[in-house]
Specification:
single chain, DNA polymerase, domain 1, two-stranded parallel ribbon, 10 helices, binds S-adenosyl-L-homocysteine
Length: 346
């Protein structure tokens, strides 16, 4: 019976060095292999040209590299690119490249499916199959960086954890992936260019603050009225607004980093004055800005984009209270790559 080989990228650099020492080689060999695995993002042992043939065979006999494969790439009229990403066990997630004039943003997935149950989101309809491994998150970034260079002649500039899944329900792996993305031994990207988006898992927001992270935080708020929020995001019954408010205050106190609220305005749900007032009030708790996201229909009658007038009312009320708000038009709608549309139809 063949024993299952370990994914070599689950080893720390220290562990890899120890492995070589235990096998009668030099610890330094571990550094070389680590460099191939992470900064060079190589997905096979054969091409590790600065280690001997015997070493490569030995690695092959002991380990696998559980890497992703971009199965299908779709390009939108607006330049957005969506990758259907096949994992080593055949499951599929999606990631998106979003080009603007000044930046290229990668929108990456953190779970296969999602732990949460937001009624307006296509991903939520897939139950959570599993968490992504750090290497699988890292690979999505590498793939998009390569596409950015290829199609737009520039490297990736920003990363948002706004693809499939709830990043804070896969905390350790997301943090490990970000460590490697930001490390000089990985991609060396600035954490200031990374945003982790959460539906509001309060205790993990506090944990992030305690862990002294350097990236930005976005929270999918959508309503600052408990009853409404519980209705459209049922899991929030266990993550109520007072607790969220406290966690965000704690976050700001520790990190001094402004929070972005993501907010969709829907007809008959949160397009009234009471909702606007509640948001304005909530925004005063912690320094923040608001992204008003356009709704992307997901074949559900309950949710419809609010009128332009309703959005105008939000903008006016926020501006009057000195809260920065931006309207975010959707990108990549024609290829189902927009917010909330990721559900691997492929
Ligand atoms: N689970 C995390 C990461 C996903 S981010 C989070 O919720 O923040 C995806 C963003 O798109 C979230 O702000 C989500 O609320 C929003 N979204 C989901 N479905 C949408 C839809 N149909 N139209 C527009 N935005 C949507």
């Amino acid at each position: 019976m063949e024993i299952e080989k370990k994914d070599i990228r689950s080893l720390t650099k220290e562990q890899l060095r120890d492995f070589f020492m235990a096998n009668g080689d030099k610890a330094f060999r571990g550094n070389q292999v680590y460099e191939w695995l992470w900064s060079k993002a190589l997905h096979n042992f054969e091409d590790m040209t600065n280690v001997s043939k015997e070493t490569r065979v030995m690695l092959e006999n002991n380990f696998v590299i559980n890497h992703i494969k971009v199965d299908q790439m779709q390009r939108s009229e607006d330049g957005t690119v969506k990758n259907a990403v096949r994992l080593h066990d055949g499951l599929i997630v999606e990631s998106v490249l979003i080009p603007t004039e000044t930046r290229t943003t990668a929108c990456v997935s953190s779970q296969v499916g999602c732990s949460l149950d937001c009624n307006f989101c296509a991903t939520a309809r897939l139950k959570r199959m599993r968490n992504l491994e750090p290497g699988e998150i890292y690979d999505q970034v590498v793939a998009i960086d390569r596409e950015s260079r290829l199609y737009y002649n520039r490297p990736l500039s920003n990363i948002v954890f706004m693809g499939m899944g709830e990043p804070l329900m896969n905390y350790n792996n997301v943090m490990k992936a970000i460590d490697m993305i930001t490390s000089e031994e990985g991609l060396g990207m600035s954490p200031k260019r990374i945003t982790v988006s959460t539906s509001g898992v309060s205790k993990m927001i506090k944990k992030m603050a305690d862990d002294d992270v350097k990236f930005k935080l976005a929270v999918s708020l959508h309503s600052a009225i408990e009853e409404t929020r519980n209705h459209i995001m049922p899991f929030t019954k266990n993550f109520q607004l007072p607790e969220l408010k406290e966690a965000l205050q704690y976050w700001y106190q520790k990190t001094k980093s402004k929070i972005t609220y993501e907010y969709v305005v829907w007809k008959g749900i949160n397009d009234d004055k009471a909702s606007i007032d509640a948001l304005v009030k909530f925004c005063k708790y912690v320094p923040c800005k608001v992204n008003l996201i356009e709704y992307n229909p997901i074949d559900d009658g309950e949710f419809q984009q609010a009128s332009d007038e309703a959005i105008e009312n939000y903008i006016k009320a926020l501006a009057k209270n000195d809260i920065v708000a931006k309207v975010r038009r959707s990108r990549g709608k024609d290829i189902d790559a927009a917010c909330g549309q990721l559900a691997n139809k492929s």
